[in-house]
Amino acid sequence: MGASFLPSPAFLAVFLISFVTLSIHPEPALAITRHYKFDVMLQNVTRLCHTKSIVTVNGKFPGPRIVAREGDRLLIKVVNHVQNNISIHWHGIRQLRSGWADGPAYITQCPIQTGQSYVYNYTIVGQRGTLWWHAHISWLRSTLYGPLIILPKRGTTYPFAKPHKEVPIIFGEWFNADPEAIINQAMQTGGGPNVSDAYTINGFPGPLYNCSAKDTFKMKVKPGKTYLLRMINAALNDELFFNIANHTLTVVDVDAIYVKPFDTETLLIAPGQTTNVLLKTKPHHPNASFFMSARPYVTGQGTFDNSTVAGILEYEESHKTIKSSHSPKKLPLYKPNLPPLNDTSFATNFTSKLRSLASAEFPANVPQKVDSQFFFTVGLGTNPCSKNQTCQGPNGTKFAASVNNVSFVMPSKALLQAHHFGQSKGVYSPNFPINPLIPFNYTGTPPNNTMVSNGTKLVVLPFNTSVELIMQDTSLLGAESHPLHLHGFNFFIVGQGFGNFDPKKDPANFNLVDPVERNTVGVPSGGWVAIRFLADNPGVWFMHCHLEVHTSWGLKMAWVVLDGKLPNQKLLPPPADLPKC
């Protein structure tokens, strides 16, 4: 008689697991290469009854949406058909060993000149969520921007229920004048630049502005559904509060990192930041429409655009409702209550709720030991007025901004090339101060001397250095919230507070378990923030305030991360089509 074969329990378990795995993941999680073409061109656009020729990608304002999956490679060919020099930054993309594709002009590349092109070539590694792309030269990002949406790998899910629909919501600023002329004039006179004429949602100012009722973003929703709103603040110079009247939002992700979900009526979002929220619509048609409004959070002493952008949330009528009412009735429109313009306590309360998911699948790998500590002051200051000129800055000076009192001078060659080819001499010096050279009471009565020093100075970090950085706001020319963006990395926000950072007491309260991970952080007005990151990405990485006016004034610096010993720890060689200066 033939021997019968009985499978062992272990075999059955393996078989079952493989069967379950196959049925959950019917498609393999294959990464693909996606090709996009960006033609940078002029386009006539009308807003606020004002028509002007603006710089766009593919004639669209805002620019086209890039959609990819985690693990995909992107090849984006940018062709410059305008007179301006152009470079594009993929905000929040880690750019592991691909710093040549990061995009800030004169930092990782020379800009793309008129008639020239460049292919941005990078792979999305270990990231999923909402990021965005924008011009990274002068103030051209006022019209050159768009969403960069990274879906999870095929067969993997969100750590929350799958939404009915996903909607990108991108805030911008509209200027009737040419933003390039505005900043050029301000840099010459030394005064503050003219402010924008409107904020926009997906390019539209909405009904609260002059002759803009037809230019309103409308979001149509069905009752009893969940929508994922992918929110991006692409405004030039303003942090924004956002609220949908009579609706609660659930925050699930910031800067393409999942967070522990929490409910809020109002969001705070700084330029450069993204926030994914779930919107659960009402179970039945509410017989009303609702404003989705945003207006600025203001802490500085300068002028600002004190206006409100509104879109409209509209519920779709069911067929029954349409049949029963012959004439479409005008529905009431509810308006949200937004916090006061200077509501720093709301801002603090909101940011303190942000915590990493810190799950087995999405861990928070916070550096527990620190190799190098840095203390940077960030704030405003002044430069002297040149002879034979009257200046419009404080007491006849020119406005400036600095990190550790160094106002960054943009080089005329790209820093990454200078570093990579060992030609840094005359381009930059590697001696950026790791602490303020002259300590003072940073948030107290400011000293009389507000003059900054000027230079192109960088910090050099060995590969895999574990960094702790304290960023301290100063009261020079007024305390102000500064959204600081670090290229090439995410960082953990391990602590923050008001007043001067106390190195003896404050570190005891650092959160090293589930701090939020971001690429852009608001340094609190009259306070400090502590971040940690691992310098595991070789290259030259820009760090700057994402309020464009402060960047123009010099609130920026850069980090050089040296190559590691292993081949996969070294910056890749530059592409053949890298633009020349």
From TrEMBL:
Catalyzed reaction equations: 4 hydroquinone + O2 = 4 benzosemiquinone + 2 H2O
GO cellular component, one term: apoplast
One function term, GO molecular function aspect: copper ion binding
Highest rank taxon of the organism: Eukaryota
Record's signal peptide: 1-31
Keyword field: Apoplast, Copper, Glycoprotein, Lignin degradation, Metal-binding, Oxidoreductase, Repeat, Secreted, Signal
Residue ranges constituting the Plastocyanin-like domain according to the UniProt record: 43-153, 166-318, 438-563
Location(s) in or outside the cell: Secreted, Extracellular space, Apoplast
Pfam families per the UniProt record, alphabetical: Cu-oxidase, Cu-oxidase_2, Cu-oxidase_3
First-listed, main subcellular location of the protein, grouped into a coarse class: secreted
EC number of the protein: 1.10.3.2
Cofactor(s) it depends on: Cu cation
GO BP term (any one): lignin catabolic process
Protein family according to the UniProt entry: Belongs to the multicopper oxidase family.
Protein name, as recorded: laccase
